[in-house]
Prior knowledge:
The structure is a single chain. The chain is α/β, with parallel strands linked by helices. The chain is built from 12 helices and 15 strands. The chain is elongated and about 80 Å long.
Amino acid sequence: MTGSLAAARKPRDGCLMTAPTSTSAESRINDALDEVGLVEATQRLVRIASHGGNESAAQKLVAALMADVGLDTDVWEIDLDEVRAHPHCSYEIDRDHALGVVGTLEGAGSGPTLILNGHVDVVPPGDAALWTHPPFEGAVVGGRIYGRGALDMKGPLMAGLFALKAIRDSGLTLAGTVHLQSVVGEEDGGIGTLATVLRGYRGDAAIVMEPTNFAVARAQAGCLNFRVRVPGLAAHGAVRSEGVSAFEKLFLIYAAIQRLEQTRNADARADPDHAAMEGRMGVRPGESFADAKGQLEAAVTGASAVDPFLKVHPPVVEWWGGRFLAMRTPTDDPIVEILRSSAEAVLGQSVPLEGVPFGADSGLLSQVGETPTVLFGAGDIRRAHRPDESVEIEDLVLMAKMLAVAAIRFCGTV
C-alpha cells in the first residue's frame, strides 16, 4: 500500500465532526450508531473459524444479524458448478457447499443502488503459540479486537452492517437501495462475489470494505499464481558430476524472474531430478492476464535458452489457484467523490486517493458486475494474515459512521 493515514491524528472521542457539507440528517447517525452491538457482533463472528472452505456457520450468523437489523435478507445455496463454469471463476479450495448472503436496505424512491461488499472467509491462523491472544477468541484488549479476521475483514463487514442499522435507527429513509454482500472464498479467488454477481446483484457503485487506513482506493492490482518446475538429472552421490542439480538450475530461472520483477516495477515506478518454485505475479489495471503471463513465460524461456541443459530440458510454467482481476475507477466517478467527502466530514481531515497492490474482490465487481468500485475500510492491511491480527474499535466505529454518511449522500433520502 502506498501511503496511509497511520500517522494522522483522528478525533479521539469518536464523535461525528460536522463539516460544512454535513447535514442534520447525517448528524443523527452519531447518536444512532450501536457501538456496543458492533463490537459484540464482531467478536461473535471472529469466534467462528471460517477457513479452509468452512464458511457456512459464519454466513448463517451474518444472515441472522442482518435479519435482526431489519434488512431484507437473501440466503441461498450457491450453485458451485454454475459458478465454476464462468471464465472468471478461480479458487484454491475445492468446496462442496457454500452459502451466499445479501442483506438489503430497500430504498423508498428512485435513487441509485449502492453495494457494500465484505467476506467472512479468513486465512488459517498458523501456529496458535505465536498469538498473544487465541486466534478465535475475539478478545478485546486495549481498545482493540484481536483474532483472525478481526481486521480482514469481519470487523469491517460488521461496520457495514451497523452503518445500515444506524440509518434505520435514526429514522432516515433512503431514496436508493443498499445491498450488503457477505461473501465466501475471497481469500482464494473470489468465488463468493462472482456467485453474488451472477445472482443479479449489481449497482451504481460498490465499496469493498478492505482495510485501507481510511484512504479511498480507486485502483487495485490484479494477480496471478504461478509455479515453475525446473528439471534436473538424477545421479548417485558417488558420481555427482554426472548429474544435473535442478536446484542450481532453479536459481537461473529465479534470477530471470527477479529481473522481470524489477523491470515491471520500474515501469510502474545427491542431485534432485526436479525443483519447483511458486510465486504471485501482480497485474496492472488495464493489463490482460494473457499479457502478464506472456512476460513471465518469456523471461523463463529466455533464461533457459542460454543454459545448455535447460535449453534441451525446458522448465514448465504452470498457472494455478486463485487469481484476481485488476480494477481502476475514474477519479471523478460519483462514488469516489462522495465517499471521500463523507470520510472527510467524519474525520475532520483530508482523505487521500490511492491504489492498493493486493488482490481483492473489487475487480470482479468492476469488470464482471460492471459496477464502479472502490476499496475503503478501517485498519492497516499490514496487520492482516499474521499472528495477533487486530483492529481498533474506534476505527470500526468511525468506519460505520463514514459508510452511513456515504450511503445517505449517494442514495439520497426521502
